[in-house]
Amino acid sequence: MRTSPPRLRRTENFLTAVHHGKKEEKASVERRRLHVLKALKKLHIEADEAPVVAVLGSGGGLRAHIACLGVLSEMKEQGLLDAVTYLAGVSGSTWAISSLYTSDGDMEAVEADLRHQFNRQEWDLAKSLQKTIQAARSENYSLTDFWAYLVISKQTRELPESHLSNMKKPVEEGTLPYPIFAAIDNDLQPSWQEAKAQETWFEFTPHHAGFPALGAYVSITHFGSKFKKGRLVRTHPERDLSFLRGLWGSALGNTEVNRNYIFDQLRNLLSPRDLWRRTVAGVKNTGRLIFAPLLRLQQSLQRERPALEDEGGEPNYNWLTEMLENWTRTFLEKQEQPDEDPESKGSVSDFLDFMRKTGICASKWEWGTTHNFLYKHGGIRDKTMSSRKHLHLVDAGLAINTPFPLVLPPTREVDLILSFDFSAGDPFETIRATTDYCRRHKIPFPHVEEAKLDLWSKAPASCYILKGETGPVVMHFPLFNTDACGDDIEAWSDTYDTFKLADTYTLDVVMSLLELAKMNVSENKKNILGEMRNAAMLYYPKRYAQSCSLV
């Protein structure tokens, strides 16, 4: 009998090592099996025990978000989604997957919202900025907060205030698949680069957040709260989905692209003509109120300079110099008088504090800062995990751009994986990376010769079925393929570049991508049903051998 490793779970205000952890997930999956069996019957697949099917969505920014919505919508329409036990995503796919749950599984409503958002090009800057300024009051503010509320919310046209724990009801009732959202521990990147360390991977579900390789988890409602030696020291509110979407999707471009974008946004926010003044509406004499704090902001950032240079960074304050010049000119032109309203000064002070913290985080390149729930925990042998006061969690696409490592552990007993790849460039890079990861850790995964992958990548078809001697069957679906795009794959890819801003996405552009993703499902329904039927045969081979002989 296989035993699971010790896992950490919360008992009142204490984390203790126990066996057979994640009981909530196990119970939810068991209830889901009943719904899967009914769905299989409707699809004319008879089974007394439901095979475990996992659907994976890769990263790819807004392209992945829209395409994943198309995949989920078409799978729902074809009756396939009801036969799925797990849904897992990286980066942009997590935005789509979370939308499925915030809409209670109503994909028609999700599509209607998508059309509305991109038809009217709506985005509430003032509300997003207010959320960011509020987040900046936290001791663990990082670029992830800025990214979540001012970048991802603009890309998706959404600012969800619900929480992962709000997804519990449909998940526990088994009416929707069990969702898994991927991240990685950025502090462990050296270990990943050297040995593809399993401990690098971090997962979020409606019940827990933690490290699968360690079996170490904390209740999702206490993710971000402060722990020491396993005890809850200080409770912090559960982070909203907007923040988590920013954390899961924090690698839309390379470091230089992201850095330039963030500094551009900082410059824009401090432009004398920018809409940021909505957050301090009614404040008089803004020039005089801003000028002195800006000088303090520059001094504060300059004080950080020696420490930053010790880390090998060379901070660039040209953006701040430009701001000071702009505000100096505005101040001199208007010759404004001091405003003694303390409330006005407070709102400006909050704004400038947000700017100061963002500038420092951008110079340090600090992302995903949260309290380490394993800090000084005696049950963790690895001191790297228990000695850090903070974790820095980032987009899992920086490791592998699809969440294979989270559904391959034997405890999840996955029989069939539907891998929808929305990546830029080579659609088989995720297969290569996962093959290497599994080889290093002796995890069963279908092996494909490198020469064959190279050949496939030159003119990818819409579906590949990969089978090994053991382990799950993998169906891999490249988004841009010759079946749907013909010889225009490069043109499609250019149109939907990963870091292309939502402002460039017209409704027609959005709907074309949505329909393409749907086509990849509908055109391969027969293949998917065939592998679902094969997975069901694993449990009762004799019965299926007899029924197949009659066909």
UniProtKB/TrEMBL annotation:
This is PLA2c domain-containing protein. It comes from Colobus angolensis palliatus (Peters' Angolan colobus). InterPro entries: Acyl_Trfase/lysoPLipase, LysoPLipase_cat_dom. GO terms for molecular function: calcium ion binding; calcium-dependent phospholipase A2 activity; calcium-dependent phospholipid binding. Residues 7-551 form the PLA2c domain. Pfam families: PLA2_B. It catalyses: 1-hexadecanoyl-2-(5Z,8Z,11Z,14Z-eicosatetraenoyl)-sn-glycero-3-phosphocholine + H2O = 1-hexadecanoyl-sn-glycero-3-phosphocholine + (5Z,8Z,11Z,14Z)-eicosatetraenoate + H(+); a 1,2-diacyl-sn-glycero-3-phosphocholine + H2O = a 1-acyl-sn-glycero-3-phosphocholine + a fatty acid + H(+). Keywords: Hydrolase, Lipid degradation, Lipid metabolism. GO terms for cellular component: cytosol; nuclear envelope; nucleoplasm. Gene3D superfamilies: Cytosolic phospholipase A2 catalytic domain. CDD domains: cPLA2_Grp-IVC (cd07202). The keyword Hydrolase applies. GO terms for biological process: glycerophospholipid catabolic process.
